[in-house]
Amino acid sequence: MNKVQNARRVVIKVGTSTLCYKTGNLNLRRVRKLIEVMSDLKNEGHDIIFVTSGAIGIGVGRAGLSKRPTDIPTKQACAAIGQCELMNIYDREFSKFNHTVAQLLVTRDVVSNKTRHENAFNTLHRLLEMNIVPIINANDTVSIDQLDFDENDTLSAVMAQLCEADLLVILTDVDGLYDMNPSDPNAKHIPLVTKITDDLINSTKQKGSELASGGMITKLEAAMIAGETGIPTVIINGDDPENLYRIFDGTAKCTIFDLN
Ligand code: GLU
Questions:
Q1: Residue numbers of the domain that contains 10
Q2: How many domains does the chain have?
Q3: Which of 87, 165, 205, 211 could cross-link 160 (Cys pair, CB 3.0–4.6 Å)?
Q4: CATH of the domain at 89
Q5: Quick one: which atom of ligand 1 is closest to the CA of 56?
Q6: Nearest alpha-carbon partner for 201 in 211, 182, 191, 215
Q7: pTM for the complete prediction?
Q8: Beta carbon of 78 within 6 Å of any ligand 1 atom
Q9: pLDDT value of residue 216
Q10: 213 CA: nearest ligand 1 atom
């Protein structure tokens, strides 16, 4: 998969299940490793755009709530709290490797609103020219309903389009797509998808291969969005951040979506 291995500009999306323990607290060992690997890939010559979830999850812990809230204002408050902690650690860890980060909080109208699209495009491209690592999350505080980016899989695909990326990588808690629920011993791993058919979508829904928070269906949607402009998507297990290296040396166990 030369297109994948030769990708220079890469959007890397990391979900809450990769960033946090089940307690909701940050998995510091994994986050540190992840940032070390992303920094190293940047040193190697890749542009790295980091799409992060985890703000709500971490905010829940910080606010001392016993469980994830279901009402939108409390979710938004938690996102505002957790986002600070996320950026604090990302800033600190990337700095150790001499990389500078920038925070971008976006809403879905970066796609539909021409002026906002232009502004987001310009900011993102200028940051990349300045050799900065853009770190992106949904702007949960001003998202007034759940029709906005309430999951970051499709957000990462939209960002991949916006920054004209060569590759979208979604780190999750499974090795990619399986033909049935991956906890089933008969489940077969699917290394390459060239077409997302209705059958594939339905089987993903029905067989519930959804160990990750956004589920596999939003990852297929992300792959379709990225694929619209010819960007391949890789879904890979984020438990070991060194898997990112394996994408580029061609040894990764993952699912590649190349929809041309
Ligand atoms: N924007 C949400 C957060 O930072 C993440 C949504 C998702 O889990 O994809 O908590």
A1: 2-257
A2: 1
A3: 165
A4: 3.40.1160.10
A5: 10
A6: 215
A7: 0.93
A8: no
A9: 87
A10: 8
